[in-house]
Amino acid sequence: MKLEEIMDTVSSFFEKHVRPVHRITSVQEKEEQWEVGVEVIEEKEYMKRYGRDQLIGEYIAKLDEDMDVISFERIRLRQRTSVKSEEEEGR
C-alpha cells in the first residue's frame, strides 16, 4: 500500500466529514492498520472575525487493511502559533 494512497484516503474523508486537512503530520503502520496524524484549522471564520489566532485541531485517524477509515479522534486543540513542548513531540 502506497503512502500517497493512504494520505489521499484520509484527506478525502476529512474533507467530506470533518474539515479540510491543513497538514498530515504522520503515517504509521500499527498491527494490521494504519494510523495517520492530521491537523485541521478549526473555527477559521470565527477566529478571524475576532482577530484571534487560528485554532488547530490535531487528530488521529485509523485505517484498516482495506484502506477504510475505521475511526478518528481529536487528540488536542491548540493555537496555531503555540509551540509544542518536547514531551508532546515525543508522542
Indicate the topology:
Elements: H1 3-17, E1 21-30, E2 33-42, H2 44-49, E3 55-63, E4 69-79, H3 86-89
Molecular shape: elongated
Radius of gyration: 14 Å
Q: Indicate the mean pLDDT.
A: 81
Widest sheet: strand ordering: 1-2-3-4
> How many beta-strand elements?
4
Major β-sheet profile:
4 strands, antiparallel
Order of SSEs, N→C? HEEHEEH
Q: Roughly how many Å apart are the termini? A: 24 Å
Catalogue the unreliable spans.
Answer: none
> Number of helical segments?
3
Relative helix content: 25-40%
> Per DSSP, what share of the residues sits in E-state strands of 2 or more residues?
35-45%
What does the oligomeric state look like here? Answer: single chain
Helix/strand-derived category reads alpha+beta
Describe this structure in words.
The chain has 91 residues and is of the alpha+beta class. Helix content is 27%, strand content 44%. The protein contains three helices and four strands, in the order αββαββα. The chain has a four-stranded antiparallel beta sheet, covered by helices on one side. A hairpin with a 2-residue loop joins strand 1 and strand 2 (33-42).
